[in-house]
Amino acid sequence: MKYLKIKRQNTILFLYWFLLAYIIAALIWWFIALNQQNTRMAENELQEVRPDDYFFREKQQKVLQDKKRKTAQYLGEGVIFLLLTLTGAFFVFRAVRRQFKQSLEQQNFMMAITHELKTPIAITRLNLETLQKHRLTPEQQQRLITNTLQEADRLNDLCNNLLLASQIEAGGYTFTKESIDLSDLVSSSAHQFITRYPQRKILVSVPPHMDYSGDRLLLQMAINNLLDNAIKYSAREKIVWITVQQDDHKIKLTVKDEGKGITDAEKPKVFDKFYRIGNQHTKGSRGTGLGLYVTKRILQQHKADITVTNNNPQGSIFEIIL
Fold first, then answer.
1. In this structure, how many other beta carbons lie within 10 angstroms of the beta carbon of residue 89?
2. Dist CA 294 CA 273 (whole Å)
C-alpha cells in the first residue's frame, strides 16, 4: 500500500514537471516563431522601399524601429508570461508538497493513535481477565489493579489531547481564568507520575504557595505532557527533574531529562502538529505527535513562552516562562 502511494506521488510529480517543461518550451517556441515572422515582415517591407525614393532613409529607419519595437514587445510579453507561469507553478508545487506531507503525517498519526488506543485497552482487558479467572494474592491483585489504573490514566491523557487539539483547531474551547496554587498543581502532577511509574526516579523541586491565574485543566495537561515526554524519551534508569522557580514576577517551570536529546534541526519542529523526532529516536517509544503541539497552544492561551535546549551531557530541557 505504501509502495503504491509513493509510486502514485512520483507519477503525479513527473506529470507536473513534464507539463511545466512543455509550457516553458511552448513559450520559447512562440517567441522564436513570432520573432522570425517579425523579421520576415521587416525584410519584405525593406524590399518594397525603393533606393531612389527621397524618403528612403526615413522609411528604412522606421521599418527597423518597428521591428525592434515588436521584438521588445514579444520579449516583454514572454518574460511576463514566463514569470507568471513560474510563480503559479511554485505555489502549486508548494501546495501539493504540503498536501503530501500532511497526508503522510496523518497516515502516521492514524497508525500511532491506533496503537496507542489498542495497547491500554488490551492490557486492561488482560488484567481484568486475570483477576476474574485466577485466585491471586492481595499483593498480586493490587499490582494488577495499579497497572490497570495506570493504563486508564494513559488512555485518559491521550483522549484529552485529542479532544483539546480538535477543539483548539475548531476554535471551540473556552479559556477560563481562575486563581491557582501552581505549587500544588505541579506537585500533584509529579506525584501522579511517581505513582504511575514507581520504577522511575522523578525529582521534584517546587516552592510552596506560588499563585498564578490561568486555566487549571489546561496547565495540568501541559505539565503532564512534558513529564510524559521526558519519561518516554529517556531510559528507565535515567532521572527526570521538574522544578519551579519565581523571579521578577515571572515563574519558570523546567522539565529536564537525560534522554537522547533533540537535534538543533528538529528543535523548531517539535511543537508542530503530528511531528515526531527521527525514527532512530522513536522506534521504541510511543506517542502521537500531539503532546508538544497541545502544550504549545495551551501556553499561547496563557501568553507564556516555552523553549527547548540541550541538557548536558545528554537529554533535553523544556522551560516554560509564565
1. 16
2. 8
CA pair distance 14, 161, nearest whole angstrom: 39
Report the pLDDT value the prediction gives residue 281, as an integer from 0 to 100.
43
Listed in sequence order, the DSSP H helices in the chain are: 2-48, 56-133, 138-170, 182-196, 216-232, 279-282, 291-301
Measured distance CA(2)–CA(107) in Å, rounded: 10
Amino acid letter for position 149: L
DSSP 134: S
Q: Taking a C-beta distance cutoff of 8 angstroms, is the pair 285, 233 a contact?
A: yes
Under 8 Å between Cβ of 185 and 209: no
Does this model's pTM top 0.70? My answer is no
Residue 186 grid coordinates: 505541579
DSSP secondary structure code for residue 204 in this structure: E
Phi, psi at 97, each rounded to 5°: -65, -40
Give me the pLDDT at residue 254, please: 93
CA proximity to 321, closest of 227, 252, 241, 225: 252
| Residue 233, helix vs strand vs coil | coil
113: number of Cβ within 10 Å: 16
Cis before 198 (ω within 30)? no
| Residue whose C-alpha is closest to residue 257's, from 278, 228, 286 | 228
Judge whether residue 211 has pLDDT over 90: no
pLDDT at 242: 93
- CA–chain centroid gap for 114, Å, is 20
**What pLDDT digit, counting tens, does each position of 61-87 carry?**
787 788 888 888 888 888 888 898 888
Mean pLDDT over all residues of the chain? 81
